[in-house]
Amino acid sequence: MKITGSQKKLYLLALALLMVAVALVCAWTLWGGWEAGSSALVTSSPEAAPTIVPTACPGGEESAAQPQAEPSGQTMSTVVYYQDNYGYLVPVMRSVAYQDGIAKATLRMMVQSPENDMNAARLGLRTVLPEGTTFDLDIHDGLARIDLSEQALNLADAAAESNMVTAIVQALTEFDSVERVEFLIGGQKRDALPHGTDISKTFTRGEINLETAASAADGLEPVMLYFPCESGSVVVPVTRMVYSDADVNTAVLELAKGPSAQSALEAALPAGCGLIDVKVENGVAKVNFTGEFAQLVQNSDGGRLALKALVLTCTQFDGVDSVEILVEGQPYDPGEGTLAVPSFANVASDIENSYIQTQASMIFDYE
Predict the structure, then answer these.
(1) What is the pTM of this model?
(2) Which of 100, 16, 109, 22 is nearest to 62 (CA)?
(3) Which of 53, 69, 236, 276 could bridge across to 288 with cysteines, CB 3.0–4.6 Å?
(4) Number of alpha carbons in the 13 Å side-chain half-sphere of residue 144
(5) How far apart are CA 310 and CA 85, in angstroms?
(6) Given a cut of 80, is residue 98 above it in pLDDT?
(7) What is the pLDDT of residue 219?
(8) What tens digit of pLDDT does each residue of 31-58 get?
């Protein structure tokens, strides 16, 4: 990557401002200035603070209660949906203070605000709901009825509207108690948002970041692929429709083809790298690549993010618990821990520092 002197100065200035902003937010957090209060931000040591998998309330209104006093210091995990600079939705697992009403709290983290925007920026991402948006949420018998305030109508175009709707549906259906999502605006049922996005139906969990408008009705099958984001800090799930069986062989073959020509995502595998075959034995996907695969170590991170994308693409299938790599039929060791199956595609605590480091390294990666 070539960078002129003026571009380098702008990069340095932007990076410095971001680091200063992060430092100010951290300081403000320590002083107890956020709305949740200092008691909601205090966490115990990892040994004393078990992670609690969130489950939305089985019925009735999903409350916005503050963290309970009894489990103070404990944390719970929830999946927040952000978007990157090109509009791709990115799921991120965040650790938050133990609290009731976790589904509603999750959605609140997706609304544009100084605090939420800073948390997203530390990941190289952006929030998806307009500033000032509030909502009521009722969950009963698998149906989540969300009533958005009229601020939700303040989006720039149909793409932003679609992202907001999809992000809300995906975030809510992460909870076992939610199977369907219905939208209201200001207490009223609407057929569409201002730019034409249909909200008349009841939504179920569907494909995310669909590459084309093709569907199963066209004789195609969806297969999920993971590609590194251009920010160099997260992997992005992409749904590609294929004519082949949606299995691990097809997924790795499509991954080797790289993202679509119109995509801003990064290829997971080196240019020219081909797939020889994939064999699944005793839960292990043994993936055999051509010799070009060895060039992966030339990536700025040694190929760790690309390997993560490969592992996630393979282990989404039943019967695949781990991945081994071969190059031209010979075992290949990409480095300790690089083929470990992650607990989730993107975990905030693992990636929030890598974004700043990646941006800093880009400044000096020039000839």
Answers:
(1) 0.79
(2) 100
(3) 276
(4) 32
(5) 23
(6) yes
(7) 82
(8) 444 333 333 322 333 333 333 344 444 3
Residue identified by tokens 């489950």 is 55
Residue 251 CA to residue 223 CA, distance in Å, equals: 6
d(CA 116, CA 121): 9
Helical H segments across 227-333, by residue range: 248-257, 304-315
Query: How far is Cα of residue 303 from the mean position of the Cα atoms in its chain?
Result: 19
Q: Tell me the Cα Rg of the chain.
A: 22
Per-residue pLDDT tens digits for 330-342: 999 998 888 999 9
- How many CB atoms are closer than 10 A to CB 221? 14
109, HSE (Cβ side, Cα atoms, 13 Å): 27
Q: Residue 326 is encoded by which pair of tokens?
A: 């071969």
| Measured distance CA(344)–CA(79) in Å, rounded | 9
Residue with tokens 């809300």: 168
Query: For residue 197, which amino acid is it?
Result: T
How many whole angstroms separate alpha carbon 93 and alpha carbon 171?
11
Q: How far is CA 229 from the centre of its chain?
A: 10
Domain ranges of the chain: 42-204, 216-347
Q: What is the band of 283 on the pLDDT scale with cuts at 50, 70, 90?
A: very high
Task: Give bridge partners of residue 203 from the DSSP assignment.
Answer: 181
pLDDT computed for residue 61 by the predictor: 46
3-state DSSP call for residue 29?
Answer: helix
